[in-house]
Amino acid sequence: MRGDTKAIAIYVIASLVFASLTTVLALWPTHDWSNFYNARPVRGEMGLGRFLIRGTRYGDGGRSTPFAYAWRLVDSTSLGRLSAWIGYLVHQLGQWLILAKVQQQQKKSKENCDGRKDAKGIKWSNDTFYTWNWQMVYLNGSMMLYKLLQTHTTYDGLAVDVSEGTAQGSVIAVLVVALLLAIPSRGIAFGKGKKIQSLSFKETLDFVKKYHGYVMSFGTVYNFHYHPAEGTMGHLGGFFYQCLLLWQSASFYHQSHRNKYWVLLLETWVFIHGTVTAIIQPGTNWQIFSYGFAIVFLVNQVYDTPIPKRYPWIMASMYTVFSVAVALGFQGNRAYYKMTFVPVAEYLCLFGCIGIGMITAMLVRRWHLGASSVVFRAVVVALAYIAVAAGLTIGLALVLAGNLKVYNDY
Asked: How many domains does the chain have?
């Protein structure tokens, strides 16, 4: 078995073990295993059998309120808030620090290669983890254990203070960046756009390739600490996915990090998790996630596989199955526009990132390389990076939730 394949098997098994452990520890105290399917708990249900949670919010007409996160304490505590934010900040800043140290080491490694312009710096490993990989594994592992302890003692995650839309938006922002990174291998849509002849476009892709880890880290860590370690089917799929992303955060400069089928799993698992989570809740939100992420796969992600070129009959079959599924899924309401939310939002964000990146690249290229201008350029690029990351998260949150409310009125 190849080194990267073996590593990926370990990632998947370890993630499944942690997600399963989370579920068992949450449901074991009450022995009410039916709560595994309880996607809309009411006040007094769930909460590990010891905590009083808000449950589902119902408005006028008895309808439940989307994005009113149910798994929060009715009376949040200062200790709960503090422990949730400390866990997040330690995890987040720890990941960013490790990434920054490795990039600094990469820079020095290139400078020490006899000054050659073609110096490659740190080599990608197929067999062993580097020291920084293990540092990230230890950080992630300790924070996973912290998450279990924190949930079972104070319960609340970041959900007590920030909107659920931002948590979901941060994950979809990760997927948007993944689309951008994959342009050289699968294009922008239908395999087209792989070789756009533009210096600013190339500079944008090079920049994203070099610095994407920070925004990916934010999307992963922020979402991980948003939810308490509850025991529903949705939490099981969610924590499994978050663990997969945490493994990806730990594997940079290991060949598994860029294994295209592993990356494709990371991108498409949201289709399975989003669909299952939405289906077990009454309503039609599942159409947004299921059809939306399916469209992104058929338009973009599938072109990272041999299927479009070698097996056109499989592509035709997938398009046929999708068309039939849409016809059946919208029989009740005919609201076909819902399946455009995710792909339209992702592509608008993708083009927005490309546009801002190209404009920034053109601007900084015009400045002279004096000592002061180098600092100024660095500040401008950093601010553009932060603005794009924040804009992605907040913009996608508004698309998904319609607002940034944290519902505390029930």
From this structure: 1
